[in-house]
Amino acid sequence: MARKVIVSCAVTGGAAPPATKHPGLPFSPEEIAVSAIEAARAGAAIAHIHVRDPDTGTGSMEPAYYREVVERIRASGVDLIINLTTGAGGRFVPGEEEPAMGMAGSGFRTPEFRVQHVEELRPEICSLDMGSMNFGPHVFINTPQHLTRMAEAIRKAGVKPELEVFDSGHLRLAKKLIADGIIDAPAMFQLCLGISWGEGATTQAMLHMRDQLPPGSLWAGFGIAQYQFPMVAQAVILGGHVRVGLEDNLYLSRGVPAPNNAALVSRAVEIIGLLGEEVATPDEARELLGL
């Protein structure tokens, strides 16, 4: 029998504004909600949501923007599992004269601030980044103490954390938090590959990280940019689930921009079918995830 494969769509990230990246990248709450709904109609069971300032396009942590996106999706009648990010608030750029003081570009906030929208809106899933790393030109900070406080608040809200791991050290920390009872088992993992400066987007890296997962874990994997679709195929072949979306990749193929998130989801659905598997509906995804 064909295996059910969950497709998650990362609708928009918090990186550079769309004027410098891609004219179709959604950034107002309405645009983000519409793009998530279109992705669901194309076959996505999960929408991974960041928000942006609607005037500047820069990443935002404004609870009102999250609220509008979630309310629009829920009011649409489209069945879709909402996955809100908690990654915003971990960025730190050391000051040149006073390294302990963050300079322009820093957005380091308390754990409680980073999960306030999750506590208010109660999505079915939220992301939880499982460690610190050099992230492009800045530092992404997620200390064990901060992660513990965030995980406890997420559990109290009745939300399932998606454990985002960017290298095998993050995976080791996640396993420790599971063993300590801070995160419930079986856990949901997202293997994030190709991000500077984490694990590369290769078959060997995905296989290595998959083989370190706790028994019974559900996992998905993705690659960014030109590695998005190769890693879709690789995740399916290795028994995992998949993620695509304009947060991670802006192109359908070399030199051909993706018009929207739905086009990326449709390509992932095609790959899953060509490999002999079937796309999971939102209800099938809920069953697989234990939601």
Can you tell me about this structure?
By secondary structure, the chain is an alpha/beta fold. It has a single domain (4-289), classed as Aldolase class I (TIM Barrel, Alpha-Beta Barrel). The protein has helices spanning 29-42, 63-76, 111-114, 116-121, 144-156, 168-179, 203-210, 228-237, 261-274, 282-289; strands spanning 4-5, 7-12, 46-49, 51-52, 59-60, 81-84, 91-92, 125-129, 133-135, 138-140, 160-165, 188-193, 218-223, 241-244, 251-253, 256-257, 278-279. It has an 8-stranded parallel β-barrel with strand order 2-3-6-8-11-12-13-14, surrounded by 7 helices. The protein has a 3-stranded antiparallel beta sheet with strand order 7-10-9, with no helix packed on it. Strands 1-17 form a two-stranded parallel ribbon. Strand 4 (51-52) and strand 5 form a beta hairpin. Helix 1 (29-42) packs parallel to helix 2, helix 1 runs parallel beside helix 9 (261-274) and helix 8 packs parallel to helix 9. The longest helix has 14 residues, at 29-42.
Shape by Cα distribution: globular
- Which residues form runs of ≥5 with pLDDT under 50? none
CATH architecture type: Alpha-Beta Barrel
Strand order of the largest sheet: 2-3-6-8-11-12-13-14
How far apart, in Å, are the first and last alpha carbons?
Answer: 23 Å
How does the major sheet shape up?
Answer: 8 strands, parallel, barrel
Tell me the name of the CATH homologous superfamily. Aldolase class I
Number of structural units classed as domains: 1
Order of helices and strands: EEHEEEHEEHHEEEHEHEHEHEEEHEH
Cα gyration radius (Å): 18 Å
Structural class: alpha/beta
Number of strands: 17
Assign a percent range to the helix content: 25-40%
Task: Give me the CATH fold name.
Answer: TIM Barrel
CATH class: Alpha Beta
